[in-house]
Structures are given as C-alpha cells and as structure tokens.
C-alpha cells in the first residue's frame, strides 16, 4: 500500500501494522504461575488430608486409650498429666505450666489435676515464694503407681502402635514435632524421644 507525501508528491510506502502478539516472556510467566498455583493446590490438599487423617487417628487412639485406662479410672489426658508430674519431681508444677506442656487449655489441665487429687496420686500445695500460686506434685501413692502398674498401662498403650517399626515410630515422632503448636507451648518432658540428644 502506498500514499503520496504532501511534501514532494512521491509515493511513500506505508508499513502495515503488525497484529499484537503475546510476548514469549509473558507467556512463560503465565505458565509458571499456573504451575505454581497447581503445586500450591496439591500441597494444600496433601496437608489437609494429612490433618484430617491425624484427627481421625487421634479420635480412634483416644477411644482405645480410654478403654485401656478404664482400670485406673482416668482419661489419657490425666494419665499424661501424671507422667509429666513425674518428670518435674518434687518441685511440682503450676496448672498453667502443665497446660502449656500438654498443649491443652488451662481449665483442662486443672481438671486433670482435680481427677488425680481425688485418686490420691497428686497433692495441691502453696508455692513457697507465692502463696497465691498452687503447685501440683506427686504424692507417695502417685510415685508407687508410676513405678508399678502404670508401666503395664504404658506397655498396653504402646501396643496401639505395634504395626509401626522402631524406625517408623521414631520418624513419626520427629514429623509430629514439626507441627507448630501455640507460641506459648512448652516442651513436654515425658514426650522426649529416647533417641533425642539432651543438653
């Protein structure tokens, strides 16, 4: 196609307009974003499935543990509180700290202590430096329980994981340690793996 220049009267070629195209760089970015979104969706789906399976398994284990511990007349949570009190020894522990160690609500930890006190395995004593603070600590019968028949209950509870090998049990423990808990959660003494290094 040609037009005449208004200045010299000679025809001047006119370059036709090119059709707009997608820049290859833009295309690669769009594809990368699509792949990233797909990967994110897959990760989210996998994490939710793992979460749902863990909650399902936790419910089944809680029911099984309740059946096993029925002879003691306590729940699994109260049994874990008893084990944690064993780790702190005669110094005792405040229910608020016990709650953070077990990753439960404070009222739940207080309920555990109430149950254990009724059985005579735990006592409530005033803190030596602050009479307003209550410390829970094991009694003589509590220590006797943990040194005696409580061991058989721990063995029965461990058999719930009998399908897992030693390596699988250790790896599961490590993986669950990677799941973030509330920021004020403290280390739970009785849950330390026997294969973890201690300071």
Question: How many strands, what sense, and barrel or not for the largest sheet?
Answer: 2 strands, antiparallel
Task: Specify the helix fraction band.
Answer: 40-55%
The CATH topology of the domain at 75-156 turns out to be Arc Repressor Mutant, subunit A
Mean pLDDT over all positions: 81
Q: Output the strand order for the largest sheet.
A: 1-2
> Could you name the CATH class of the domain at 75-156?
Mainly Alpha
Please tell me how large the radius of gyration is. 32 Å
What is the helix/strand order? EEHHHHEEHHH
Structural class: mainly alpha
Q: For this structure, what is the CATH homologous superfamily of the domain at 75-156?
A: Winged helix-like DNA-binding domain superfamily/Winged helix DNA-binding domain
Count of runs of 4 or more consecutive helical residues:
7
Strand content: 5-15%
What is the end-to-end distance?
Answer: 86 Å
- What is the CATH architecture term of the domain at 75-156? Orthogonal Bundle
Low-confidence stretches: none
The shape, in one word, is elongated
- Tally the beta strands: 4
């Amino acid at each position: 196609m040609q037009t005449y220049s208004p200045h010299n009267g000679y025809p001047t070629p006119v370059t036709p307009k090119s059709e707009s195209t997608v820049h290859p760089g833009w295309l690669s970015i769009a594809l990368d974003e699509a792949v990233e979104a797909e990967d994110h969706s897959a990760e989210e789906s996998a994490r939710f499935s793992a979460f749902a399976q863990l909650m399902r398994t936790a419910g089944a284990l809680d029911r099984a543990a309740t059946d096993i511990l029925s002879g003691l007349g306590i729940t699994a949570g109260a049994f874990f509180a008893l084990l944690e009190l064993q780790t702190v020894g005669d110094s005792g522990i405040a229910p608020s700290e016990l709650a953070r160690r077990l990753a439960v609500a404070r009222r739940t930890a207080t309920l555990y202590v109430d149950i254990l006190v009724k059985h005579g395995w735990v006592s409530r004593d005033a803190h030596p430096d602050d009479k307003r603070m209550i410390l829970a600590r094991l009694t003589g019968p509590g220590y006797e329980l943990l040194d005696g028949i409580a061991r058989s209950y721990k063995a029965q509870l461990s058999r719930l994981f009998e399908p897992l090998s030693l390596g699988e049990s250790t790896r599961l423990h490590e993986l669950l340690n990677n799941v973030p808990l509330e920021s004020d959660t403290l280390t739970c003494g009785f849950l330390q793996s026997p294969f973890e290094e201690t300071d």
